[in-house]
Design goal:
single chain; 466 residues; alpha+beta; five-stranded mixed beta sheet; 12 strands; rod-shaped
């Protein structure tokens, strides 16, 4: 039974040991929480950043594709407007008026130079460093068109046409065609536009798009950080608590403060689990203690009489022998064998014999001193260890026990029985310096008492004949 109790204790110890894989759980819970937060941030921000970059790239490609066309249309429109505005100045040869006109033209976005030519292709007024072109190329322009594109410049030209007055008497289609043929080209305008610049407002729109994309990414990053922390921090605390729980810390608890209802439920569940495990552990330890005590008692006591059994007797006898060697604390062993006990068993059965043994055990126990020990070592045999007892006191105690047992009147189912007790005494001293020697001496003395008349006390001596 003691072996079984020891086995249960070792099993419990093994169950509470930290598994090899669980030891690492307590090492890096916060690191794992930070790693989870980083992964969540990456999972949320990566698509947004890629989307913002894609929008900017698409806009950049689109803008680059639009730059030439937009610049050309802008330059042609400027040249037409400038040609219409210069009509009167060329016709009237108002150089100062044309000069002011070109100054205002250079104030337009992208315009770097402008020239007004007369009907013969000679420059009347020029502003800025205009590209020098062959006169025939300019004079040959009968409609607005691009003349050249060089060194980052787009050179366009448009004719300056003077329209005839509509006298109002040309009512037919033929008359209208005749009037149109009367239109006369009196000069040309040349406009140099920086082809590297976009149309007005295009750069500003691109900047606003970029700022909007960056703002959207920043706002999304803020939300992602808050969301990642609301998940990563509670997850890290739960991981740390589980690691401590796996390591045997049954008092671990986590605060129920998560932002999401799901994580709060997990935190409450972990706390409930820890409390349940702690309660079960306490109940298990209490049960093991009770069971261990019961098994230890059963291992050392006789189930019939409740007295210590032979195993405890041998341990206490060995202690008594050692004590006699160290401090001359001599004692006496009384070996008691009941007389006529077999007659009770044969007449009334083992139940009567068991009841008789119980009464004899109680009777002996009443006459013991506090420091003495009475044991049932088998059948109808008892052993009494008297500690710190002189030979005279030991003999007196033994004779008193012998008399009390002899006076016992045992009744069973209307039958009355009288038994006796043969007692053998052996001093626990130097000549008998081992437990086996003491026990053999007491047994020899008890056998001599039985052989010489029973119901008496016999003390062992070296010359005692067996």
């Amino acid at each position: 039974m003691a072996i079984a109790a020891e086995h249960d204790g070792k099993a419990l110890e093994r169950s509470l040991q930290v598994p090899a894989g669980a030891r690492g759980l307590r090492a890096t819970p916060r690191a794992r929480g930070r790693a989870l937060t980083r992964r969540l941030l990456f999972a949320q921000l990566a698509p947004l950043v890629l989307l913002a970059l894609a929008v900017c790239a698409i806009y950049a490609v689109h803008a680059l594709q639009r730059v030439p066309a937009a610049s050309t249309a802008h330059a042609l429109a400027l040249s037409v407007s400038l040609g219409q505005a210069a009509e009167f100045g060329v016709f009237a040869r108002r150089v100062s008026s044309l000069d002011r006109l070109l100054q205002r033209a250079l104030q337009q976005p992208g315009v770097v130079a402008a020239v007004v030519y007369d009907q013969a292709g000679n420059a009347i007024v020029a502003r800025g460093e205009a590209s020098v072109l062959a006169p025939a190329l300019i004079v040959g322009s009968d409609s607005p068109r691009v003349l050249a594109e060089r060194a980052g410049r787009l050179v366009v030209a448009a004719p300056i046409v003077i329209e005839p007055l509509d006298v109002g008497d040309a009512s037919g289609s033929g008359d209208r065609a005749r009037v149109a043929n009367l239109a006369e080209t009196i000069g040309w305008v040349q406009v140099d536009v920086d082809s590297g610049r976009d149309t007005p407002g295009a750069g500003g729109a691109g900047l606003w798009i970029l700022l909007f994309a960056l703002g959207a990414v920043a706002f999304a990053a803020l939300l992602a950080v808050r969301l990642a922390r609301s998940i990563g921090d509670p997850a890290a605390r739960l991981s740390e608590a589980l690691g401590r729980l796996a390591a045997g810390d049954l008092n671990v608890r986590v605060p129920v403060d998560a932002g999401s209802e799901e994580f709060r439920a997990l935190q409450e569940g972990l706390n409930s689990l820890a409390r349940s495990i702690a309660d079960s552990h306490r109940r298990m330890l209490a049960t093991i203690d009770i069971t261990t005590d019961r098994l230890a008692h059963q291992a050392m006591h006789d189930p019939l009489t409740g007295l210590p059994n032979r195993r405890m007797f041998e341990q206490v006898l060995e202690e008594a022998v050692l004590a006699s060697r160290r401090a001359a604390d001599h004692g006496t062993l009384c070996y008691i064998d009941l007389d006529h006990f077999k007659h009770v068993n044969d007449s009334c059965g083992h139940a009567a014999g068991d009841a008789l043994l119980g009464e004899v055990a109680a009777l002996i126990g009443q006459r013991m001193r506090a420091q003495d020990l009475i044991c049932r070592i088998g059948g109808d045999e008892f052993a009494l260890i008297l500690r710190g007892c002189s030979p005279e006191d030991a003999r007196r105690i033994a004779e008193d026990l012998c008399t009390a047992v002899g006076a016992l009147n045992f009744e069973w189912e209307g039958k009355s029985f009288h038994i006796g007790a043969s007692v053998g005494l052996a001093r626990i001293d130097d000549p008998l310096n081992t437990p086996s020697a003491v026990l053999k001496a007491a047994d020899t003395a008890c056998y001599a008492a039985k052989r010489t008349g029973r119901s008496q006390v016999m003390e062992y001596c070296a010359t005692l004949s067996c």
